[in-house]
Amino acid sequence: MRKLIAATISYCKYTDEPVTKLKEKGIEIIKDYGLKELKNMSEETRKSVEAIVVGLEKVTPEVMDLLPNLKVIAKHGAGTDNIDSAEAAKRNIKVFNVPGANSTAVADLAMALMLDASRMVCIADKSVRSGKWERFYGVELADKTLSILGFGAIGKAVAKRALGFGMQVIVYDVVKSDFEGVEFVSLDEAIKRADYLTLHMPLIDSTKHVINEKTISTMKENAFIINAARGGLIDENALLDALEDKKIAGAGLDVFETEANVNPRFFALDNVVLTPHIAGFSEEAINRISIRCTEYILECCCKEEGQC
Question: Of 161, 193, 230, 292, which one is the catalytic site residue?
Fold first, then answer.
């Protein structure tokens, strides 16, 4: 029986290297399939799918039911909150992710959101395009305090960049690590002291709505919140209230609680920058992730007798 991989659109988008490796092993790729399309596949095709590569699509028990010979779920990125990993374990399906492969791309966008929010780049661009020539007075990053919540590969990459901008960097994480130039503090202190607060935590029960009405009330009025991790880390209604009432200076958001149905209250605000969950989408990051996902899949699907 032929072997198939059902893969999200970003898989192998900028490199043919994984495709070549898979073809050498007799594995075909069904690309840009969309999990919704699984039901429309023939039963024979679904039985041939031994691996899926997913982006933000939800992998539920119902999806697994459609793929009786599924061996591998490879996350084309880091966070696996869209995958029912417990159910996969019950079915002896391997779940892999690729932590750190997109850290450079995400850190770059986090800094871009800080700069845009601080210097009102998008607002100034719209002004020029409308035929105006206005002055917009922003603030500098240098000497400001950046609080990083979550200090994994992405948090460390952000710290490196922020130190280069001359920022004072403080960090909250449950695990302390050696990193020259940063100060580890409590969660409460990190939130209170922040001129800029950037989130790089996984979305789990203990971090859901870590930024909420109570924590926002302790922040400086000139503070900015940046989120390029997961939308559920922030209580959006509390953030919207704070932005509308000018209780904080602004925000830069790449992720939202209900993607892609962004709360329309954001659209009326000029103190927030919005991007459509693109932080990890650099060509280089996509290449690294695609290659690593392929390595995992080959390890599980192409050993003798097709067993992991």
Answer: 230
Helices (H), the chain: 17-24, 43-48, 61-66, 85-90, 103-119, 121-129, 153-164, 187-193, 213-217, 236-244, 283-301
277 is catalytic: yes
Q: Are 84 and 60 in contact (CB under 8 A)?
A: yes
Domain count, the chain: 2
Do 25 and 125 lie in one domain? The reply is no
Scanning 40-102, the segments in alpha helix (DSSP H) are: 43-48, 61-66, 85-90
Same-domain check for residues 169 and 257:
yes
- Catalytic residue at 76? no
Going residue by residue through the chain (308 aa), what tens digit of pLDDT does each one get? Answer: 567 888 888 888 888 888 888 888 888 888 655 566 787 888 888 899 999 999 888 899 999 999 999 999 999 988 888 999 999 999 999 999 998 899 999 999 999 999 999 999 999 999 999 999 999 999 999 999 999 999 999 999 999 999 999 999 999 999 999 999 999 999 999 999 999 999 999 999 999 999 999 999 999 999 999 999 999 999 999 999 999 999 999 999 999 999 989 999 999 999 999 999 999 999 999 999 999 999 988 888 766 444 44
Known catalytic residue: 259?
Answer: yes
What contacts 182, CB < 8 A, 6 or more positions away?
148, 151, 159, 163, 169, 170, 171
How far apart are alpha carbons 190 and 173 in whole angstroms?
Answer: 10
Number of neighbouring beta carbons within 10 Å of residue 131: 6
Distance between CA atoms of residues 57 and 270, nearest Å: 31
- The whole-model pTM stands at 0.86
Q: Give me the CATH number covering residue 241.
A: 3.40.50.720
Domain extent, residue 112, equals 103-274
Verify that 270 and 296 share a domain, yes or no.
no
Catalytic residue among 17, 140, 183, 259: 259
* Angle, in degrees to the nearest 10, between helices 103-119 and 283-301: 150
